[in-house]
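Much of the work behind modern protein science is quiet bookkeeping, done one molecule at a time. Below is the pair of lines this work produces for a single protein:

***
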Amino acid sequence: MSIDATRGSLLITLLLITSPLLAGDLNPPGAPAPTPGPEPRIAINDANTPGTADSVHVITDQGSYYLEDDITIGSAAKNGIVIEASNVTLDLNGFRVDGRELIPLPWVGRDLEISLDGILASGEVENITIRNGTVRDWGHDGIDLWGATGVRLVDLTVMNGGIDGITAGEACVVSQCVAEGNDGTGIRVGGRGVITGCVSQGNEGEGFVVGSSNITACTATENGGSGINAAWGSLVADCILVDNGGDGIFLSSEGNQALRNTCYANGYPDSDGAGIEAQGHNRIEGNHVRFNDQGIRVSGGSGCLIVRNSATENVVNYDITGSHGVGPIVSGTAPITTTSPWANFEF
């Protein structure tokens, strides 16, 4: 073998031996962690959101805001947080906006001024989101966004308000919220809204009041008035209404639908309520009503469709007058012999 060939063979062997060393670590470490930056949201505090004579904090610019701690009113006759700008997100961050219960002083001949709203939208603002916290013990509404549109309220508990728990304007979404122990209505929304997965309990007024809205998978219990008052083309579906002082569901105008709801012990025994009460031109289908003062009551008018419901152990199961489309009412617990797919049942 020539000298050149020998040198070539040695060079190839050397490269094969050293190539793994030259390649480096075959499992390099991951990319370095990013250096933490400043919180991109704006904290609610005296520097960023200073208050006024009638408010603890005021939001005047669009942006994303959050609580760093509980907010407690320092004196009477104030709102908690006032939102004066559109395009605002407010994360309560698990904290409370607390209005305290202020005690009257009858022995000095006057009462203390009560607190105002817990969270208030001022003016015709839009696109407001509030989430994740508790608002309680305010003298007026817990959350008052009645003048705002495009509101989203998520994962909130609103308790012990002097008037309503939650009010929101048109085109709102209220999801996974609880309204409890308020002196007025638990949750009240304007037209074209969506309310889903909410609970309204133990309020002095009605549980929910909605207009032209979709309310689904909600529960209303032990409210002084009706569990749900729905008007003007609303859909009430898959809800639970128990032990409300008025009706379980009151369809208070035309064009509504009540589908697949359960209404138990409403208006009974001390009130003249019904599991479901309606006026003309509503659809009532697939509901179950039990232990109510009246099961399903439609008083006069015309144009309702009442099919596929079941009623049991109400003082009166079906109390329907006027000119309506009513599926045959099949009574008793014997084997069902009707062939009508639209039958209503009582047993």
Q: What stands out?
A: Residues 171 and 193 are 5 Å apart (CA to CA). Residues 62-164+173-182+197-202 form one domain. The first strand starts at residue 42 and ends at 43. DSSP finds one helix and 36 strands in the chain.
